[in-house]
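Table 4 source record.
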Amino acid sequence: MSKRVVIDPITRIEGHLRIEVELDANNVINKAWASSTLFRGLEIIMKGRTPYDVGLLMQRICGVCTSSHYLCGTLAVEDAINAQVPINAKYIRSLILTTLQMHDHIVHFYILHGLDWIDVVSALSADPAKAAVEAMKYSATPMAAGEGDLRAAQEKVQGLVNTGKLGPFANAYWGNKTYKFTPEQNLIGLSHYLKALEIQRIAAEAMAVWGGKNPHPQSIVVGGVTCVRDMLDPARLQEFKQKYAHVADFVERVYQADIKMAAAAYAKEPSVLGGCNVDTFMCSESILLNPDDHLFVGGVIRNKDLSKAENIDLDMIEEDVTHSWYDANKPQHPYDGTTIPEHTPFIERDTIVGKRPTINEAGKYSWVKSPRYNGEPVEVGPLATMVVNYAKGNTRVTSVVNEFLQQTGLPAAALFTTLGRTAARMLHTLAISRHGLETFESMVTNLNSDQTTYIEPTIDPKKEYKGVGIIEAPRGFLSHWLRIKDGKVENYQAVVPTTWNAGPIDGNGKVGPYEASLVGLQLEDPKKPLEVLRVIHSFDPCMACSVHVMDYKGQSLSEFRIPAQAM
C-alpha cells in the first residue's frame, strides 16, 4: 500500500518549496510533486514602467543571485532597442557575474547543501589529529584543516550543543544511515563550513568593488556601467585582484578537496547515484574573457549524449501552465506569455497522520510554470553548463572535468547523478576561478587606449520593440523577455533557472527535473527523508523571496507592529 511523505517547507533554500512523494511498500518513491507555494507577480509589476528601470526593479526577484536579474533585465532592454555597450562595460559586467558565481556556489555547497553530506553530530566524536591526517589525502595544502583548527571548530560547535542553541545545525536528520563520511571527514567538512562563512564575505566584497554594494549592486545601466572611478583607480583594481585570489585559493584547496572526499565516501551510496532523470540539458554562453571569447559556450545536448551538442533555438522555448496556478489555454512563448493567477486549494486526505492537505495531482499545484524546449523538459544549471561544454570540446572545461574523473576514478556517466550534479557545481566554480582573471587582464589592457564605459541609449516612443536578455546565472539558464510600446514596458516574462528545474508535470504528462529526479529513490527512513533533501538541494533551489507566509487555510501566522517612535 502506497503512502505519502510531505516536506513543507524545504529549508536551506531561497523561497518557498514543498515536496510531496508517494512511496511503495519498500519506501521507494514512485511519484513526486514539487510545489512552490508563494505568488509574487513581479512580471505584472513591470507593466507600464520605463524600460530604464527594468534592471533595478527585476533584481529584487532575488537577494542571493542578486546581480543576475539586474544584468539580464538590462540586457533585454538593450537587445530590444539595439543599444550599444562599450567593451569596458561588458568586462565589468562579466567580472560582477564571475564573482557572483564563485560566491553563490561556495554558499550553496557549504551553507545550503553541505549538511546533506556532513553529519555534524558525528563530527563531535572525531579525533582532530586523525582528521588532520585525513585532510592531506585530498589537498596537499589544506586550509583550516590542521589539528588545532579542527579542534577549535569541534569545540565551537560542541559549545552550541552544550547551550542547547544549535542555530543552523538544529532540526536536521542527524544519524541517517545514508551519511557516509567518517567522524573525521565530517569534522573536516564542518571546519570548512565555518571557514566558508568568512570566504563568502570576501567574495561579496570583491563583487561590490564593481557593483557599489552587495546584495543588489547599483552600477549597471542601459548602455553601460557607472563605476568609472573604480575601474580607473589602481588601488581598487589591486583590491579586487587580491580578494579574487583569496576566494580562488579557497576553491582550489578546500571546495575541490571536499568534493573529492565526497566522491570517495559516497561512491557506492545508491541515494546519490541516481537523481538525474531528464535527458536534455541547456546552457548559455557566459563569462566574457576577451572580445572574441567566452569562458563557457552555450548549447543543448539530448539523451545525455556527451559526443555532440547543438545550438539553442529560442523559438523552441514555451511555458506550459496545465498544472500551475495560472490561466492560459495553451503553452506560450515568453514574448507572448501571460501571468494571470488562478489559484486552487490542495485537497484533504487521510493518508498522512494528522490529516493534512496534499497535492491534487489531477489539478494545479504550483506557482512555478513548466518551461519546455521543443516540447521536452530540460535541466539547467552548472551540470548542464559542464556537460554541454564537455560535449562541445571546450578545453577549459574538459581539462577540469577529466582531471576530476581521473582523480576520483568515476566514469563520465557519473556526472548524470546527484553526486555528479554537486561535483559539477564545484567544477564550474573551479573553471571560473582559474580563468576569470583573464577578463580583468583584458580590461586593464584595453584601458590603455579606451576608457569608455557608457553610450547613451535612445527609445523612440513611436516605435514598438521586443528583446531578450540571456545569461548563465548561478543556477543556470536565465532569460528575461519584454515588449516595449509607447516608451513603456508592455509585457514582461522572466524564465528563471528554477522554473526550468522545478516546474510541475506538463499537459503532455512530461515530468520536470525536480520531480523526475526523485522517482526511484529509496528512503532509508521516511520519517527522516534526508535523501529527498540531498537530491533537491543539489539543484540549489531559488523559488522566490518574500516578506510573509500564510498557512494552507489562509490564516495569518504572525503579526508585527512597529512602534511609531521607531519609524
